[in-house]
């Protein structure tokens, strides 16, 4: 989709509002032309010696009316501009975020987080600004046409002279559009690099201090900031100062020429005093229009760069049409998800020959079969790097499988990321991500649940005892990334978040890594006592393995054994050695 079509699509999503915006802009631009027209008529009447008499009051009333109408349209247009600005920026951000959510969760975005955030904020604002200034130019163009029409009725040749700088502006912008875009793209790129670097610095403050790298990092930030400053200056100098100066002097030159000619015409009687008054005052507006028009054209070119930058946030092959599309649902993704899902509570989840290779490596999983029936606890185990996390992430669609099939109740699931989500399935990763907010906010995560649901989820995830010791219980604040909680607490808050939605299938990744043996034992005990809970979990602990209906052992990405723990324990090396973590935990627990 071209930039023109994308801009038009942005207007088409709310034609009524944009028509109102155009009308208000036209009113606010055209009404200021009325006073000069009134004064010109008054001058001509005086010059003719006919006097003003009763007409004076009519002209005065017209003047007051024009001023009031302008003030009213000015207020209206400012309000509508605010709407255009916020809804345009909001739509671009929303569509881009929806596209991010539509891709496999674990796949990295093509650009750093800092650059992505910078694109979402600044580039969406550039496009929103362009939409507002386009509407301003619509009003300004109507003003210019009105002024030129009146001027042409007075003197055609002078009017043509007035128009020349406007065409010059258009031509100059067209010829320099490549440079405008290039300078702007380079300045945006530099701004993105500064944001990325700052984000990295904030994430690694401790590590930088420990490595005695504060000076080096500061120098690098300074260097990137300097590049950003130089490029932004160049872009602004080019698109605003240089082009502005050219247009202003061209318009000024044109205005001077028009005035010289006008004076000579006044002398030979072909132009009246009223005509001169009109030309002088309208020239100011035409000059302003030329500057506005040229700036707006430059902004339009810059917005092309910003649209492309926003489109490139996600490398899903979609084009500008996806960026400017009208949203179809609250999140822009949920509706599609629900439509494609097989219905019915879980009876059996099966996967056959699941295969995934991590990009640029030969590691992953290879031809793994898996079955989880309603009410079962299936535990995946294996050595470090055996492929356990990869298996779970491929299953829930966080990684796009290279081969294999997944079936929910015998119905093939093409896009598991759209189907294996609450209320069917919920997942707790090895290192959970908690948001800034209260423990309650993190457990509910926006779900419409009751207090009893929250308490039950906290009990099942063995968080109840911790909550009792926290200063504000469920209202206790969790810092950025959940850093005020211990690893085990964070993992249990994430588990409670999963449980509060009461999904059919609970998927836990490596619950043993952050829980001591007693807590893990209690967790499995409570979950198993809670009825037909279906769980797929990664664990190394005997307490989980021994309770499992089936243990799956992975080695180098392949399934090497599957069955009840007591049946396969002696023949599988991964199961015969005691887990060192268990030994330490048991020692600490005095067992
Ligand atoms: N993003 C990645 N890129 C390349 N290789 C990866 C990536 N993630 C994992 N791997 C490799 O794939 C293999 C399986 O990793 P995975 O995390 O699934 O193992 P795991 O059994 O969960 O390990 P652990 O018990 O340490 O969590 C490992 O060899 C790992 O190094």
From TrEMBL:
InterPro entries: AAA+_ATPase (IPR003593), ABC1_TM_dom (IPR011527), ABC1_TM_sf (IPR036640), ABC_transporter-like_ATP-bd (IPR003439), P-loop_NTPase (IPR027417), Type_1_exporter (IPR039421). It is a multi-pass membrane protein. Residues 349-581 form the ABC transporter domain. CDD domains: ABC_6TM_exporters. The chain crosses the membrane at residues 56-80, 127-150, 156-178, 237-263, 269-287. It is found in: Cell membrane. This is ATP-binding cassette, subfamily B.
């Amino acid at each position: 989709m071209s930039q023109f079509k994308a801009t038009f699509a942005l207007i088409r999503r709310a034609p009524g509002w944009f028509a109102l915006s155009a009308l208000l802009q036209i009113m606010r631009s055209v009404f200021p032309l009325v006073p000069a027209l009134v004064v010109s008529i008054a001058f001509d009447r005086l010059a003719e010696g006919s006097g003003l008499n009763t007409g004076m009051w009519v002209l005065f009333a017209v003047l007051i009316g024009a001023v009031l109408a302008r003030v009213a349209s000015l207020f209206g247009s400012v309000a509508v501009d605010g709407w255009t600005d916020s809804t345009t920026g909001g739509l671009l951000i929303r569509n881009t975020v929806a596209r991010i959510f539509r891709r496999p969760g674990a796949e990295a975005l093509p650009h750093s987080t800092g650059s992505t955030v910078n694109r979402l904020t600044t580039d969406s604002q550039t496009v929103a600004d362009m939409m507002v200034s386009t509407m301003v130019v619509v009003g300004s163009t109507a003003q210019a046409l009105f002024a030129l029409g009146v001027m042409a009725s007075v003197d055609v040749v002078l009017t043509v002279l007035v128009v020349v700088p406007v065409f010059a502006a258009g031509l100059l912008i067209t010829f320099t559009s490549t440079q405008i875009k290039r300078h702007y793209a380079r300045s945006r790129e530099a701004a993105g690099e500064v944001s990325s670097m700052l984000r990295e610095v904030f994430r690694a403050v401790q590590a930088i201090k420990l490595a005695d790298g504060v000076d080096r990092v500061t120098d690098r930030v300074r260097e990137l900031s300097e590049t950003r400053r130089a490029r932004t200056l160049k872009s602004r100098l080019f698109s605003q100062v240089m082009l502005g100066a050219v247009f202003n002097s061209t318009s000024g030159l044109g205005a001077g020429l028009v005035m010289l000619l006008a004076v000579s015409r006044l002398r030979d009687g072909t132009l009246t005093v009223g005509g001169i008054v009109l030309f002088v005052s309208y020239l100011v507006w035409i000059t302003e229009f030329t500057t506005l028009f040229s700036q707006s054209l430059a902004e339009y070119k810059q917005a092309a760069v910003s649209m492309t930058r926003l489109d490139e946030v996600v490398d899903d092959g979609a084009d500008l049409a996806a960026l400017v599309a009208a949203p179809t649902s609250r999140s822009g993704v949920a509706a599609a998800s629900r439509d494609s899902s097989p219905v019915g509570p879980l009876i059996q989840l099966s996967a056959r020959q699941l295969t995934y290779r991590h990009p640029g490596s030969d590691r992953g999983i290879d031809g793994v079969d898996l079955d989880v029936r309603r009410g079962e606890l299936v535990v995946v185990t294996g050595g470090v790097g055996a492929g356990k996390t990869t298996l779970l992430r491929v299953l829930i669609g966080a990684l796009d499988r290279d081969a294999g099939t997944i079936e929910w109740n015998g119905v093939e699931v093409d896009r598991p990321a759209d189907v294996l989500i609450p209320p069917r399935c919920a997942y707790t990763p090895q290192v959970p991500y908690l948001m800034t907010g209260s423990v309650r906010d993190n457990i509910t995560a926006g779900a419409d649940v009751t207090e009893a649901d929250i308490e039950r989820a906290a009990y099942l995830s063995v968080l109840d005892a911790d909550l009792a010791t926290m200063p504000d219980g469920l209202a206790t604040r969790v810092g950025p990334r959940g850093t005020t909680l211990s690893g085990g607490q964070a993992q249990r808050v994430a588990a409670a978040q999963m449980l509060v939605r009461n999904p059919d299938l609970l998927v836990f990744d490596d619950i043993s890594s952050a829980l001591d043996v007693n807590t893990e034992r209690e967790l499995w005990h409570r979950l198993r006592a809670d009825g037909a809970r279906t769980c797929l979990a990664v664990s190394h602990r005997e307490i989980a393995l021994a309770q499992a209906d089936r243990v799956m052992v992975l080695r180098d990405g392949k399934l090497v054994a599957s069955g009840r723990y007591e049946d396969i324990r002696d023949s599988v090396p991964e199961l015969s050695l005691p887990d060192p973590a268990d030994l330490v935990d048991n020692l600490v627990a005095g067992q």
